[in-house]
TrEMBL record, chain B:
Name used for this protein in its record: ABC transporter substrate-binding protein
InterPro entries: Bact_solute-bd_prot1, SBP, TAT_signal
Matches recorded under Gene3D superfamilies: Periplasmic binding protein-like II (3.40.190.10)
Lineage top rank: taxon: Bacteria
Length: 322, 428
């Protein structure tokens, strides 16, 4: 303990002293420290190897096999991958997922940004509003919300009645193949809390003086948003776009629950992961399902790469002049 | 510095200990112990599909079993039909299916081919299980290629469940031997007079189409494939879709929303084809009065019906085949179990249980009477073969047929899709 106190009091020489003393025991001690570190991590490492890395390698192998869970896998080369493109339900699942990502993600981010802009200004009860808007993100992933959604969007329920009152007679969305996907979109948009919090943090970082200068130059609110806020938060925006897009591709729970496990009607909510699940665990075509999983990984990687590439066109990182 | 090294060594050892314990725990959780404890008590696992009500009855029956066999403990779990088979498939693939489980004819060949089902004949020979005292030939349902893969607990047959109040209001009285024309006219009358669609979607029910095909000298399955061609199904589904559009069959949009409830019990349809023992379900779910009506015919007589059944099967991987067989024997033969279970899984299959249960409620009485009348009218035939993959084909038929009514696909495309998926299912 005595040494520790001197370390704090007189840190620079002490560090030097420690450094000069180090070479004597560094090799053995360092190795021992590393070993202790790895051993402490070992439950996690074991979990990672057994539950994540191992299964991933296995699934990569299964992707090239015909495997029904019971027989030993039979090597079929790229057959699973080519079979996908001939499968109308696979194409449908790609279409449904793409639609969900393309419609849902921008809407969600727009709403998140809009609300974040409102909440960024200081006003009374700010903490309450933030918490209130964030709440759906906390409970949104739960199955129970799926059930609530299912009943909200049924015949004669709130949404149907409100619509009818406004003169649109659609009926319940849940049973309607043309509308049910928007029910899922509404669910994800409603959970805008997480990106909103990130936007809020980004907005707080924008230096006040920039706005003051712009105001002096006579820039209106829209101009200030377009020329200052947006470029300044573009890294945060990029982060949110990336995260939400990847997240959207993986939609499963809400589609599964809202459609009462069928991902219907008429495959209207047959999102990619849902079809993957049906192929693997209902039809026992595990090889095909594994191939689908790797295809999804490739697609997400590709979209991510494109987003990263597009970064230099629209994301502005502040030059660190200091 | 000396102490420092010691502390570190101890830390290393502690960390090693922690991870060893973690891994050890994981290993125990995965490994299991075959279900035998030190005092010789054997634990077997029993799973089934069904509703809460069935679970209550089964747990009461198990209490009786454990009293009679104090050295055998039964661990249970249950799911809905779909989830049950998803879970079962995964468990079976992992070599860890339940020791005893509920089974149906559509799954016998599939899991026999995969080596999951115990041939119970060996246990019959060993005297742990009796196949005597069953009602007329019902044990045949559990037989595949000379192997006894399941023992029936109850028999059932396809029936038309009707909303009696709506039928009365419309003045429709289904008579034995009525024809399809009579039936479709009745649907129209019901819709005209009560605004309720007459049926909830007959054309997507595989077991009904099977009866229709049997009336026409065909059947849904052959030993290794489909027993009908694309033009047969195109006609069946085209007519069905036409009736949805005409409003006499429930709009699939409504059916999708009513799930998991049936549209019949939700009051959105006046009749539904299903297994006769399911009447119990409608009475529990819905507020109207439900009854059973005869299957429509082509020629005024033949309905194409046969007795199917729910069974109990044992796993070929079980460490306790003897105890599993004793449990099955008790569950299918013990009169007290029969009194508890009633007709929940069909008309009790063994004569002991059949004699022990005297139905007192209207629903059970009606089921008993329905099967009695059906048997006496001499229409019951041999069961249609169920090739491996029959279960997947049934699900595809229900999904594709049901979706057809949404008007999103052309009938010819739907038929093509169904044939493609069936082919894959038979080969899987």
């Amino acid at each position: 303990m005595g040494t520790a106190v001197t370390l704090v009091k007189d840190s620079v020489p002490a560090t030097r002293k420690a450094r000069s003393a180090a070479p004597v025991t560094k090799g053995r001690r360092g190795r021992r420290e590393n070993l202790a570190g790895y051993l402490f991590m070992s439950p996690w490492i074991a979990g990672f190897l057994l539950l994540t890395a191992g299964p991933m390698v296995a699934s990569l192998y299964f992707a090239f096999t015909d495997y029904n869970l019971f027989n030993s896998p039979k090597w079929v080369g790229f057959d699973n991958f080519t079979a996908m493109f001939d499968d109308p339900r696979w194409r449908k699942s790609v279409e449904v997922t793409a639609k969900y990502v393309v419609i849902g993600t921008p809407l969600k981010l727009l709403l998140a940004l809009g609300v974040a802009l409102l909440l960024a200004q200081s006003r009374r009860g700010q903490a309450f509003y933030r918490a209130a808007f964030y709440a759906p993100s906390l409970i949104g992933a739960s199955v129970s919300i799926g059930f609530v959604w299912r009943s909200l969007f049924s015949d004669g329920a709130v949404v149907d009645r409100t619509q009818s009152f406004l003169g649109f007679h659609v009926g319940g969305w849940v049973g309607n193949a043309d509308w049910v996907l928007y029910c899922l979109v509404a669910l994800t948009v409603w959970q805008f809390g997480a990106p909103m919090v990130i936007f809020l943090a980004g907005l707080k970082q924008v230096p006040r003086e920039l706005y003051e200068a712009a105001e002096m130059d006579g820039a209106g609110p829209f101009r200030r948003f377009w020329s200052i806020t947006l470029p300044m938060i573009s890294p945060v925006l990029f982060f949110n776009v990336l995260l939400e897009t990847i997240h959207s591709f993986q939609i499963f729970g809400s589609a599964y629950v809202v459609s009462n496990t069928y991902c219907g009607p008429a495959d209207a909510t047959l999102v990619y992961t849902c079809y993957l699940y049906q192929k693997g665990f209902k039809d026992a075509q595990m090889g095909f399902a594994a191939a689908m999983a790797w295809m999804l990984l490739l697609a997400v990687a590709l979209v991510t790469a494109v987003l990263f590439w597009s970064q230099k066109k629209w994301v502005h990182y502040e030059e660190d002049a200091r | 510095m000396g102490t420092g090294t010691n502390v570190e060594r101890r830390t290393v050892l502690k960390a090693a200990g922690v991870s060893a314990v973690t891994l050890g725990l994981a290993a125990t959780a995965c490994g299991g112990n075959g279900g035998t404890s030190a005092d010789g008590t054997v634990t077997i696992r029993y799973s089934w599909w069904g509703a809460e009500e069935r679970a209550k009855k089964i747990n009461q029956s198990i209490a009786l079993f454990e009293k009679k066999y104090p050295k055998i403990k039964v661990k249970t779990d249950f799911q809905t039909y779909q989830s049950f088979w998803e879970k079962f498939q995964t468990q079976a693939a992992g070599g860890n299916p339940p020791d005893v489980f509920q089974n149906a004819v559509g799954f016998l060949r599939k899991y026999d081919r995969r080596g999951i089902l115990l041939d119970l004949n060996s246990q019959v020979k060993a005297g742990n299980l009796s196949l005597d005292h069953f009602r007329a030939g019902v044990t045949k349902v559990g037989e595949v290629d000379g192997k006894q893969l399941g023992v029936p607990v109850g028999s059932n047959t396809m029936a038309l469940v009707i909303d009696k109040k709506v039928f009365e209001k419309a003045g429709v009285d289904p008579a034995t031997g009525w024809t399809w024309d009579d039936y479709f006219k009745a649907l129209k009358t019901i819709h005209d007079k009560t605004k309720v669609p007459g049926d909830t979607g007959y054309f997507a029910i595989m077991y009904l189409y099977d009866l229709y095909l049997r009336q026409n000298g065909k059947a849904f399955f052959t030993e290794d494939g489909l027993g009908f061609d694309k033009s047969d199904l195109t006609e069946w589904w085209t007519d069905g879709y036409g009736r949805v559009k005409a409003g006499i069959v429930t709009d699939p949009k409504v059916v999708a929303q009513d799930q998991p409830k049936s549209s019949l019990s939700a009051g959105h349809g006046a009749s539904e084809f299903t297994w006769d023992n399911f009447t119990v379900r409608y009475s529990a779910e819905g507020s109207s009065t439900y009854g059973l009506a005869p299957i429509p015919t082509m020629n005024g007589k033949d309905t194409g019906q046969y007795l199917a059944s729910l069974m109990l099967s044992a796993s070929a991987h079980t460490a306790h085949p003897k105890e599993a067989a004793q449990f099955i024997d008790f569950m299918v033969h013990d009169p007290a179990v029969g009194q508890i279970m009633g007709y929940d899984r069909g008309i009790l299959a063994s004569t002991e249980q059949y004699a022990a249960f005297k139905p007192t409620d209207t629903v059970s009485k009606e089921i008993a009477q329905y099967e009695d009348t059906t048997a006496k009218s001499g229409v019951l035939g041999t069961i249609t073969p169920h090739p491996s993959g029959a279960d997947t084909v049934e699900a595809a038929f229900l999904r594709i047929g049901g979706d057809l009514g949404q008007g999103k696909t052309k009938v010819t495309d739907a038929v093509k899709q169904f044939f493609t998926e069936s082919e894959a299912a038979f080969q899987a």
